[in-house]
Design brief:
Length: about 300
């Protein structure tokens, strides 16, 4: 498998650029640079190289350039992986998902630039981040699969067989994580990061989540985050009690628990620092890695709707 080292190196580069694409998207949102290039897309202000380039234009145009580069790398990686591992279902699946969702988030990004409806646009921007997240996770799963193939690791989990109910639960956790991520993206795009001011864990007089105010939207995300923490803790407890001999699952569950704890801390830091850029980027980075970890556990667990052979 040494002859495929270049392919694996490309996969690492693609993953890094895909992460940078996610990070730049968060920077665009946080700095309010979404209109830095006006309503033109994919060029900026109707020009390939605009004469006037204020900071918001540089940030927005940089995001577009990096996203285009990520898209080309993902396409190249997918085609090459298919050629080398044409008989491996996971390689083909993760490749297709990577390409599909990076194209989808690009198209949605273009629509948000040209679309003027403020409220619906914010929901579209939240979707934009969600699709970028799936694309990044798919790239990372492809990277992992390429290295597992190099090491000759089987697709099925080792150790005690996972019950179908548990496998369904892991997939349900991944689905809920994705929903919780959308609540965070909505907080950013509805400018609700400081909806509760500097208060934590309280939120002034607001106790319940909703969509009627920035405080309610912020509380929606807090409740979603608390539930996600508890579900991750449940996952770790079940794995340690029933599947301790499954090394990959134990490691993955511990990593997920550590990440969701760090994510909670990063959220508190974000509130207490007034939503500064670095805290917001840390928050985005951790949840991105966490989501990728949970989808990795889904990959290990296999599809629950398939009969065991």
């Amino acid at each position: 498998m040494k002859k495929h080292a270049t392919l694996r190196f490309l996969s690492i580069i693609t993953a890094l650029v895909s992460y940078l694409m996610l990070l730049m998207g968060a920077i665009v949102t946080k700095t309010g640079s979404g209109k830095g290039c006006g309503n033109s897309w994919p060029i900026c202000k109707g020009e390939l190289i605009p004469e006037s380039m204020p900071l918001e234009s540089i940030i927005e145009y940089s995001h577009r350039i990096i996203s285009s580069g990520a898209g080309m790398l993902i396409l190249a990686l997918t085609i090459w992986s298919w050629i080398v591992y044409r008989d491996n279902f996971r390689v083909k699946l993760f490749g297709v998902m990577s390409v599909f969702f990076v194209l989808l988030q690009g198209a949605l990004g273009a629509l948000t630039v040209m679309f003027e409806g403020p409220f619906i646009k914010k929901f579209m921007l939240a979707l934009h981040f969600g699709f970028s997240l799936i694309s990044f996770a798919s790239v990372m799963l492809l990277v992992i699969q390429l290295y597992r193939l190099r090491d000759g690791k089987p697709d099925k989990c080792s150790g005690t067989p996972l019950s179908r109910g548990f496998v369904w639960s892991v997939w349900a956790l991944a689905t809920y994580t994705y929903i919780a991520v959308y609540s965070g993206a909505l907080v950013r795009h509805m400018e609700a990061t400081m909806g509760c001011g500097y208060d934590f864990p309280s939120c002034g007089v607001t106790k319940f989540p909703g969509f009627g105010s920035t405080a309610e939207i912020h509380m929606l995300h807090r409740y979603a985050g608390i539930l996600l923490f508890l579900l991750t803790l449940w996952l770790l407890v079940v794995v340690l009690r029933k599947y301790r001999d499954n090394r990959d699952f134990v490691q993955g569950s511990w990593i997920a628990m550590i990440l969701i704890t760090l994510q909670a801390i990063a959220g508190i830091i974000t509130v207490k620092t007034g939503g500064v850029l670095m805290a917001a980027l840390l928050h985005t980075t951790i949840i991105t890695i966490y989501f990728t970890t949970i989808t990795y556990l889904c990959m290990l667990a296999g599809a629950p709707w398939k009969k065991k052979g």
